[in-house]
Every structure is written in C-alpha cells, then in structure tokens.
Design the sequence.
C-alpha cells in the first residue's frame, strides 16, 4: 500500500503514470547485478542496483541514471 | 599526493563534464557518494530532493529520491570507519510515507553523527527526516509545511477510512514529537489550522518559526552545519591518531 504525504497536488505527481515504463533487463557486471534500461545497442541506463553489499551502493557507476557502455 | 589522480578514462575532462551533467539530470546533485578512495572525505552528504519514492515508481516527470538506494548507502556510511559524519540536505516536497519514515528511522538509529539542513523546503514527510538527525538546521528562507496526510494523500490498496489515515498520521506525528522539542498540542494545532493554506488545512513555517516552536534546533546554513558535525566528532578526533 502506498500513502503519499506531499504538498504537490496528486494530479501533478501522477501525471504520466499510465505510460508504459521502458523494458528493463538485468546486467551482470563484475560480480554485481544491475537492472538496466537499454538506451541503444551500446549503452544502458541503470535503473536499480541489486546487491547485498552496501559498498556497492556508493559506486558511481551503480547509481540510478548512470549510463554504462556495453562493450 | 597520490600519483594517479585521474582514472584512465578515454574521454578525459569531457566525459567528466558529461558525468556531472548526467548526475544533475538524474539525481539533482553534482557528485554521487564515492566508494572508499585513498582520500575519503570525513563527511558525506546525502541530499533528499524532490519526491521521496517508495513502493510505487513515480512517473518520470517527478524528481525523486529512491529509498532503496539511500538505505544501503546509509549502511555503507555507518560501516565505513573513515566516514566521520553525515550531512543530510533536504529540499523535498514530501512523498511516500513509509519510505520517508524508513529513511528517518535509519538516520535516527545511526551511530555516525548526523546533521540535517533544510534548504528551500522540507515539507510533509520531510519534517520527520529533518528531525531524525542528531542536530537539525534550517536556512532562514527555507519553509516547512506541516499538514495532515489528507491534503493530497493517495491511498492505494486499502479502504480509505478515516481510521486508517488517522493511524498513518499518528506514525508521522509521533516520530516528530519524539525527536524534536515541539509540543504535541502546538504541532497538532498547526497541522489542522485552517485559513493559512488555500486548499486545505495546515501551517507553513519559515526558517525562524520552525526553530521557535522547537521543530528544528537552529537557523543556519552550510558553515554552521559543518562546524556542528566537526564538534560532534571532536572527542573521537582527539582520542584517535590523527
């Protein structure tokens, strides 16, 4: 269940909620798994990091939004 | 100091600029917390910006703080002996109540000294996060909106009963009361005050007012925040080999 507690009007927060999210895939990268959204044939954008090591969450290339070269 | 300051990236400074721009676009911040480097900054900075995203992925027009990333970062900061303190900078419009309370509880239970700084705004669920730090600051022009959940509340998956909303409200109110000097009757009166907000009930507190009612500890900016953190770690610094 979700309860939003915010000053922003609900219609502004939810604008575009019905649009289909971009498909994602899980990328194994040097021992950790990243959920990524493919941008084109050579690049992917990090959506979320799947790891139990908290130090991984401080790595710059694992932050949501980071772009990874698939080469 | 160290011979290899620049990591061998093919793009040089151009790719660095690109990375900075991308960070601003995606996370609203210039740099992301770095993993253990030869020189670890003694203080880390966590920015809570935009909407706090919880169980539901918000549409891309929202700028969001993703709690599933913030929580492990807090664990890493707490575990890293080189990180001496955490500065939490808030400029948030609220968000998911459970994600917000989760971050607040994590901050409150950390042994690493924490100082929060409300810049711009710390509204709705931002209030418990601000008071969760060991010491809280608000800049003179920043605002905090204290209002009931119903103002623009969204409840998915449960009947929207008054009792349910009341319980959600109580979690937030109790957390704020337990972690700040504000009095219960003052907080409740501000939360349900009519006439101050156009659409609903609530109170907007600007800088000094938040300190006066005891919600925030002090009016100040970055300099004060960093010197408070330095004061908190001083006994440790004297005892250790520096």
Sequence:
């Amino acid at each position: 269940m979700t309860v939003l507690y915010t000053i922003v009007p609900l219609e502004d927060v939810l604008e575009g909620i019905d649009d289909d999210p971009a498909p994602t895939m899980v990328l194994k990268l040097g021992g950790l798994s990243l959920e990524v959204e493919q941008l084109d044939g050579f690049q992917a954008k990090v959506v979320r990091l799947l790891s139990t090591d908290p130090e991984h969450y401080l790595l710059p290339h694992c932050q949501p939004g980071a772009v990874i070269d698939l080469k | 100091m160290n011979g290899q300051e620049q990591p061998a990236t093919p793009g040089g400074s151009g790719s660095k600029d690109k990375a900075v721009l991308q960070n601003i676009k995606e996370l609203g911040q210039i740099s992301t917390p770095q993993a253990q480097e030869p020189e670890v900054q003694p203080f880390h900075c966590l920015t809570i910006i935009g909407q706090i995203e919880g169980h539901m992925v918000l549409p891309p027009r929202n700028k969001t703080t993703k709690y599933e990333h913030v929580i492990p970062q807090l664990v890493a900061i707490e575990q890293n002996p080189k990180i001496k303190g955490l500065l939490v900078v808030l400029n948030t419009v609220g968000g998911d109540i459970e994600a917000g309370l989760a971050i607040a509880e994590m901050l409150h239970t950390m042994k690493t000294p924490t100082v929060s700084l409300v810049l711009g705004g710390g509204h709705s669920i931002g209030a418990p996060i601000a008071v969760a730090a060991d010491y809280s600051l608000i800049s003179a022009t920043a605002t905090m909106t204290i209002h009931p959940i119903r103002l623009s509340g969204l409840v998915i998956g449960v009947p929207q009963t008054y009792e349910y909303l009341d319980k959600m409200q109580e979690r937030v109110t109790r957390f704020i009361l337990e972690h700040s000097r504000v009095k219960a009757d003052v907080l409740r009166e501000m939360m349900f005050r009519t006439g101050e907000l156009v659409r609903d009930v609530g109170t907007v507190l600007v800088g000094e007012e938040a300190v006066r009612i005891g919600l925030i500890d002090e009016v100040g900016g970055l300099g004060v925040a960093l010197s408070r953190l330095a004061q908190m770690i001083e006994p440790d610094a004297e005892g250790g080999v520096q």
